[in-house]
Design brief:
Structural class of chain A: mainly beta
CATH topology of chain A: Methylamine Dehydrogenase, Chain H
Number of strands of chain B: 0
Radius of gyration of chain A: 24 Å
Protein name (chain A): Serine/threonine-protein phosphatase 2A 55 kDa regulatory subunit B
Largest sheet of chain B: none
CATH architecture of chain A: 7 Propeller
Family (chain A): Belongs to the phosphatase 2A regulatory subunit B family.
Shape of chain A: globular
Structural class of chain B: mainly alpha
Oligomer: heterodimer
Number of strands of chain A: 32
Strand content of chain B: under 5%
Helix content of chain A: under 10%
Organism (chain B): Accipiter nisus
Organism (chain A): Grus japonensis (Japanese crane)
Strand content of chain A: 35-45%
Shape of chain B: globular
Keywords (chain A): Repeat, WD repeat
Largest sheet of chain A: 4 strands, antiparallel
CATH class of chain A: Mainly Beta
């Protein structure tokens, strides 16, 4: 369990450490690649910043695997939809890595309307000795050339370049909320509020619509898709969650249009807890398969639930993230915080789950020991290599030292996006425009 | 005239100062300034207050204050004047618990949220759907309670409103109303609510009651910095909303569209207007009331709606 963690804050010239948050710098997605060597972040300004883990060196064992900026590029630009007279935000909603198949790295990044496949590659050699142009690039007069030479590759400073290889556009009427790479590594899906499309990486002018919940009469719309993900091993299976707190598992082999689910996961409502906000807080903001593929985890406003794929009528585990907010729902509705979409993540072995909360708190739940911890991602509270102190929120009148009362929570500091290294205990936590990386303390 | 609301953002105004320069049609004995106790369930208040009550919650910089305990506080407040009247009335309806007040303010808040959507960027469909579901839920409950029955029996010959038109209109962007375009991010709940309420023609929507709306709506409530023309347009559109509610015509949505000034969706001027106001928070929704020059017609909004969908489908397939 991660009681002792070493803290490490990324401080780079790109992620500016201002006390106020520049809107464009607000991090909107965080994702490790499949080996954990790279960490990608997307922000509201449409930029992607990739961090790479330093190779461990024997000379400096304490500088074990720090993450440094590897590449930065502008993935999406703001656009204007002339047909509807509406702006299309350039905010990166999701980044998903492709498994590495050669020396280059590939990732998908998406804003509200367009998905792009980016290739990130290194260049550390440069050809020299061209015949038709000299070293400055000026063309040489062919009549002046008296002998031929073969260009040779000479080393140069490492340059990381990102190029857009595919642009998948014009397939979504509504805002894309999820993308998910299939385990066949040939297809991926993109989900918006009402539809899910299946793409082939090679084909950009065509996509298949596999789920469509748009009613014939938009006046009857009461439910939207909030998240979707492919099964990690079965390329025919995927799940999608809805704003009514339900999860549907679909099998693409049954029909071309998967409007009819194979499994339907819903927990019956607790009548004693019913209020006007029941539906809003039951809306699922994130759904994630476990690495094993056996479980799915869902995040709604107040809880995280773990479901067994074989049992549809209720989750097997429910964890309260910040139940002290239950009595504050009206205020949270009024200031729109109740619509915040928190994400959740599994650790590599599926034994611990993590999700964010307010006041820059994030929570971890150990599924085996049933212990949980609240930690805070803030500059004041964590010095490099200091141990993160568990935090506690007190609800009652009596506040102990070091506890924070519910009314003192800062609801503008929310941790919506977190990521966990695929094999080690390294987590990345995005707090507004700052990225925090924490590592498990190793003696 | 309209009450200017203190919108300092530090608290919800517990009292609203009436601009004394003009008279309202208020019973002299009752000048209740307090939002919470002047609930729509108190019919005398309703005669002059409903617009004010509808708009008052729109304080642009609402901080996170303790709304959840305010409901309790609200009941304890007394009006500045006419205490006996209020108390008498309250005594008459003392059987109604704070739950109703809570529900009513939640309804008001939800309707306002639906209306104040960002116009330049497509709004969040999930959020709109959730808010609309909440509104529908409240409305259903109020219908079952018969709460609306009670209001209506005490109303004096008011034209009945049988639809939650405000939701329909408020769900769409105002610009969309003018242009008749269907922004996919929005849904129309028009017929849905009409169906619910068609049976009971005497139900009244408290926040949108048909009453003489003060003509010169002060847009300082919205903290707009738009030029004077914009205020006029805004006022005009809001007036139209209430006029149609008075008319209680099933086609009032179309009426609304047909009467709206066509002049304000010239792209350039609209963008200019929007850009200058892009810093507004909750008031973003009113950017569209900047006044451009006329271009298209909005008479056949519904067919445009289907056409747009069709065009999008073609584009997607191509």
């Amino acid at each position: 369990m991660e009681e002792d963690v070493e803290t490490r804050k990324i401080s780079s010239s790109f992620l500016r450490d201002h006390s106020y948050a520049t809107e464009a710098d607000i991090i909107s997605t965080v994702e490790f690649n499949h080996t954990g060597e790279l960490l990608a972040t997307g922000d509201k300004g449409g930029r992607v910043v990739i961090f790479q883990r330093e190779q461990e060196s024997k000379n400096q064992p304490h500088r074990r695997g720090e993450y440094n900026v590897y590449s930065t590029f502008q993935s999406h630009e703001p656009e204007f939809d002339y047909l509807k007279s509406l702006e299309i935000e350039e905010k990166i909603n999701k980044i998903r890595w492709l498994p590495q198949q050669n020396a280059a790295y590939f990732l998908l990044s998406t804003n509200d309307k367009t998905v792009k496949l980016w290739k990130v590659s290194e260049r550390d050699k440069r050809p020299e000795g061209y015949n038709l142009k000299d070293e400055d690039g000026r063309l040489r007069d062919p009549s002046m050339i008296t002998m031929l030479r073969v260009p040779v590759l000479r080393p140069m400073d490492l340059m990381v370049e990102a190029t857009p290889r595919r642009v998948f556009a014009n397939a979504h009427t509504y805002h894309i909320n999820s993308i998910s790479v299939n385990s066949d590594y040939e297809t991926y899906m993109s989900a918006d509020d009402l539809r899910i499309n299946l793409w082939n990486f090679e084909i950009t002018n065509q996509s298949f619509n596999i789920v469509d919940i748009k009613p014939a009469n938009m006046e009857e719309l009461t439910e939207v898709i909030t998240a979707a993900e492919f099964h990690p091993h079965h390329c025919n299976t995927f799940v999608y969650s809805s704003s009514k707190g339900t999860i549907r598992l679909c099998d693409m082999r049954t029909s071309a249009l998967c409007d009819r689910h194979a499994k339907f996961f819903e927990e019956p409502e607790d009548p004693s807890n019913r209020s006007f906000f029941s539906e809003i807080i039951s809306s699922i903001s994130d759904v994630k398969f476990s690495h094993s593929g056996r479980y799915i985890m869902t995040r709604d406003y107040l809880t995280v639930k773990v479901w067994d794929l074989n049992m549809e009528n209720r989750p097997i585990e429910t964890y309260q993230v910040h139940d002290y907010l239950r009595s504050k729902l009206c205020s949270l509705y009024e200031n729109d915080c109740i619509f915040d979409k928190f994400e959740c993540v599994w650790n590599g072995s599926d034994s611990v789950i993590m999700t964010g909360s307010y006041n820059n708190f994030f929570r971890m739940f150990d599924r085996n020991t049933k212990r949980d911890v609240t930690l805070e991602a803030s500059r004041e509270n964590s010095k490099p290599r200091a141990i993160l102190k568990p935090r506690k929120v007190c609800v009652g009148g009596k506040r102990r030292k070091d506890e924070i009362s519910v009314d003192s929570l800062d609801f503008s500091k929310k941790i919506l996006h977190t990521a966990w290294h695929p094999s080690e205990n390294i987590i990345a936590v995005a707090a507004t425009n700052n990225l925090y990386i924490f590592q498990d303390k190793v003696n | 005239m309209f009450a200017s609301v203190r919108s300092s953002g530090s608290r919800l105004p517990s009292s609203v100062e009436l601009n004394g320069s003009q008279e309202l049609e208020a019973p002299a004995s009752l000048r209740c300034h307090d939002l919470w106790t002047c609930s729509p369930l108190v019919p005398e208040c309703r005669l002059w207050d409903p617009v004010h009550m509808f708009l008052t919650p729109v304080v642009p910089d609402w901080p996170f204050y303790n709304l959840d305990t305010m409901f309790v506080r609200g009941l304890k407040r007394k009006c500045f004047d006419g205490e006996e009247d209020i108390e008498g009335t309250l005594a008459g309806i003392k059987a109604i618990p704070s739950y109703n007040l809570q529900r009513q303010s939640l309804l008001d808040m939800s309707l306002v949220k639906l209306q104040l959507c960002h116009m330049l960027v497509e709004p969040n469909l999930c959020r709109s759907v959730l808010i609309a579901n909440t509104v529908r839920q409240i409305q259903e409950e109020m219908t079952q309670d018969g709460t609306w029955q009670m209001i209506n029996t005490q109303s004096t010959g008011q034209a009945s409103l049988d639809r939650l038109v405000s939701t329909d209109i408020l769900c769409r962007s105002s610009r969309e109303q003018a242009e008749g375009k269907h922004v996919p991010g929005y849904t129309t709940y028009n017929k849905d609510f009409e169906g619910d309420q068609a049976q009971d023609s005497s139900e009244t929507m408290s926040t949108a009651s048909s009453v003489q709306v003060p003509r010169n709506l002060q847009s300082n409530v919205w903290e707009m910095e738009n030029p004077q023309e914009n205020k006029g347009n805004f006022q005009k559109s809001l007036d139209q909303i209430f006029e149609t509610l008075e008319n209680k015509s099933p086609n009032s949505v179309e009426d609304l569209f047909s009467e709206v000034d066509n002049s304000y969706y010239d792209l350039d001027t609209m963008l200019t207007g929007m850009m200058s106001n892009s810093k507004m928070g909750h008031c973003d929704g009113l950017e569209t009331f900047s006044s451009p020059t006329a271009t298209a017609s909005n008479s056949n909004c519904k067919s445009d709606l289907n056409e747009l969908d069709h065009i999008v489908e073609i584009l997607v397939e191509s």
